[in-house]
Amino acid sequence: MPSRPVVAEVETFPLEAELPGGGYGASRNAVGARVGTLVKITTSDGTTGWGESFGPPRLTAPFLAEQARELTGLPADVREELVLRRLCTGYHFTCGGLHVAASSGLDVALWDAQARRFGVPVGELLGGRLRDRVDAYASGGYVTPSRDLGEFRERIAEHVAEGFTAAKIKIGLSPAEDRARTAATRELLGDDGLLLVDYNANNTTATLRRSFDRIRDLDPHWVEEPLPPEDAVGWRALDLGVPVSGGEALYTRYGFRDPIAEQRFDVVQPDLAKCGGFTEAQVIRQLATTWSLQLSPHCWGSGVAQAATLQLLSAVPTAPFGEHGGAPLLFEFDRGPNPLREGVLATPIRAEGGVVAIPDGPGLGVTVDEDWLRAHRLDEVAVLARAS
Q1: Per-position DSSP letters for 151-214, written without gaps between them
Q2: pTM beyond cutoff 0.85
Q3: pLDDT tens-digit readout, 45-83
Q4: pLDDT, mean of residues 92-97
Q5: DSSP 8-state code for residue 360
Q6: What tens digit of pLDDT does each residue of 214-255 get?
Q7: Fold identical between 7-119+369-386 and 124-357?
Q8: What distance in Å separates the CA atoms of residue 66 and residue 44, rounded to the nearest whole number?
Q9: How far is CA 317 from CA 7, 276, 281, 314, 349, in A?
Q10: CATH T-level fold of 7-119+369-386
């Protein structure tokens, strides 16, 4: 019987790409650079796996360094025990934050390596691939330094020209601006397009009511993060009359447990690069199904995060819907300028007519451009850990 592979090496690739013109962002804040940390795991049988950790790489690096040292020498097929053991023994650190984001990248890389060892896509290990493509929405409509409505319209028009019939925009600026941005998007998408609005939690319940009253007639498909995640009372009192979504700022099954059980939102949005990787996303997905809620993962990272999210979507059951009807399963396709999104992959992920093909190769189904990574990583905070 062949020996059980162990983790022989963990290497990280911290990345930071400065954005021109002051960057872009949401109503809460602008970002001047796109960042993230790719994680490469090599097992004792020579198999490699890739993952991605959310967050500023200089802050994530110490967590990745510690966790990488702990991981080397351990069986490469153990995942859930690692996540839960970290949370249980490190309970003083809570179940959220950059230490969980760090472990998310390691977890995704372990799943990738395991699937590559078996020669199957990760989706086969998540319950089996149910689809080979998925509808996508253009995630854009960002807030720029100029806040110019003409510039905003140009960006949305570009997404429509690319073939997208669904788009998410950033609002939460003021009732008047929120109305103008949402109305422009509805005009460009047409009556049948899916219009998603994202407040990025930049509200109190009072300001939310004033803004949403101005856009209600424009038929938003969902309202994302209308309130801060810590405002549990406000979320419980929400009654907008349209679906609300949330979860990108939550971590692990424990962070999602009460919001799901209390049905604070209708659409559950875990982010694989921060929620705990595939291991925790699977539990979160099952919790959502148990309470008859929809899943639509948040994705705002590099091509590795995109590939991982697509693998998760490939295996999401149609439940709570039956054979007919129900809301579409959607992939968030970030359209903001981001050199990391295309740069990290030998063949970047593309959308054709608003549809994205789910990679069907082993593991995440994509090939990482390691030469590009080594040329662009922040070497001063990179991590290399080897089994002794």
Answers
A1: HHHHHHHHHHHTT-SEEEEE--S-HHHHHHHHHHHHHHH-TTSEEEEE-TT---HHHHHHHHHH
A2: yes
A3: 999 999 999 999 999 999 999 999 999 999 999 999 999
A4: 92
A5: -
A6: 999 999 999 999 999 999 999 999 999 999 999 999 999 999
A7: no
A8: 20
A9: 31, 20, 14, 9, 23
A10: Enolase-like; domain 1 (3.30.390)
Set 99, 159, 221, 298: catalytic member: 298
* pLDDT on residue 1: 40
Residue spans per domain, the chain: 7-119+369-386, 124-357
Domain 124-357 has CATH 3.20.20.120: yes
* pLDDT of 2 above 70: no
CB 5 within 8 A of CB 75: yes
CA angle 266/272/276 to nearest 5° reads 100
For this structure, is 99 an active site residue? Answer: no
Mind listing the pLDDT tens digit for each residue in 98-131? 999 999 999 999 999 999 999 999 999 999 999 9
Reduce the DSSP state of residue 146 to 3 states and report it: coil
